Amino acid sequence: xxxxxxxxxxxxxNPTNIDLLISTxxxxxxxxxxxxxxxxxxxxxxQKPDIILLDIMMPGMSGFEVCSRLKSDPxxxxxxxxxxxxxxxxxRKIKGFELxxxxxxxxxxxxxxxxxxxxxxxxxxxxxxxxxxRNVDLEQMVSEKTVELEKLLDATISTITLMAETRDPYTTxxxxxxxxxxxxxxxxxxxxxxxxxxxxxxxxxxxxxxxRIPTSVMNRPGRLLETERELLKIHPEIGYKLLERIPFTIxxxxxxxxxxxxxxxxGYPAGLKGEEILLEARILAVADAxxxxxxxxxxxxxxxxxxxxxxxxxxxxxxxxxxxVEACLTLFGQxxxxxxxxxxxxxxxxxx
Length: 352
Known about the structure:
By secondary structure, the protein is an alpha/beta fold. The chain has two domains: about 5-135, Rossmann fold (3-Layer(aba) Sandwich), CATH 3.40.50; about 165-335, Hypothetical protein af1432 (Orthogonal Bundle), CATH 1.10.3210.10. The protein contains 14 helices and five strands. The protein has a five-stranded parallel sheet with strand order 2-1-3-4-5, sandwiched between helices. Helix 1 links the parallel strand 1 and strand 2. Mean pLDDT is about 85; it is low at about 340-350.
């Protein structure tokens, strides 16, 4: 099916100029005519021409004002405007370009020049529209692929988490519960969606390094020996090494590496202090300590959430970031968060 010819609007108060332009363009284009500014605006609103040839000097409303109004309206701002004028004044041309015009044609008209300028700017308009359409298609493709990759990432993370927890049945669900609390804290503190996502993924994976710790140490009843405690301390570094090669766009591996660092520098593995520790890692540290103390472990019974909250409160500003502790206490104190009694695992792709 043949494409409909482009519509050219001629705006001029001089009948002779209108006749010349019509005779020049009528073979190749559909044409519209307006003899003043108001009629031009009315025509554009109804017909949406593909290009406008606009006289500058008209009684009442000048071509500059018509151009300004059209360019200020999102519905008409992308229509190319070529000014036609008998005055070859540089300052006028500059003003026209500043208002958004694409070109100038000086009177008296040369037919071939008019045709070439109109054709050139219609071709440019067509190419811009094609490029916009392609960009929309590409954005849609990227969006779809991103969703697919996110689903694949979440499924992979869930599998990795399950594998790690099968080696340590006493902490089944621990990483997901920590992730839930860490996300709630991060959201309460006003972090961006991207940073909340980083906290979530790091929370789900924060103990992945324990996959390298012997199960005899992981599941040992009673207090660990000093050598066993030192062995356990390598799990953040192991986790970092496992995760650093995954092309996350957010610092998941670094958060995992730092989640046992403490505000006073007494943590591990690097003994970082205060602001040296990523905020996301400080959030994860509080969530991890709260969940761990409130839950059962082979070497002790569950201490309960009240004891856990009392401990992080006592160590606020010493081991834990005071703002993070305050957010955590607020969530529990106001009933905005609680660990599920059945320890249900939340979908890792969901951020509340």
